[in-house]
Design goal:
mainly alpha
Amino acid sequence: MDLIDKVIAITEALLMATNSMNKKERDDKIKQIDELLIERERLIKQLKPPYSDAEKEKGRHLMELNQKLEMKLEQIQREIKQDLLQLKSTKNSTNKYTNPYQVDTIDGMFYDKRK
């Protein structure tokens, strides 16, 4: 198995890892994805031109896989951002419920520092 085939195999493994992700196992999957991305980057840096026609065709296939992978990773990123925003909103509403008379801002107030 030559180098580009290894890169394609890792990219396909990344796609499989991003396909089957739920919130309960997300942390473990993210660690797995991170390790695969590091290994993939290491292998890509080892690729050197000139490329044969077969390698160019494999490179085109790799580019298609890479586009799919980028879309999946962006989707995961959006899901994580949404979960963080929801967590922050829940935290704020919990704080308001436990202390309803807490003043968040002092809009419109003027403090005169002179004596």
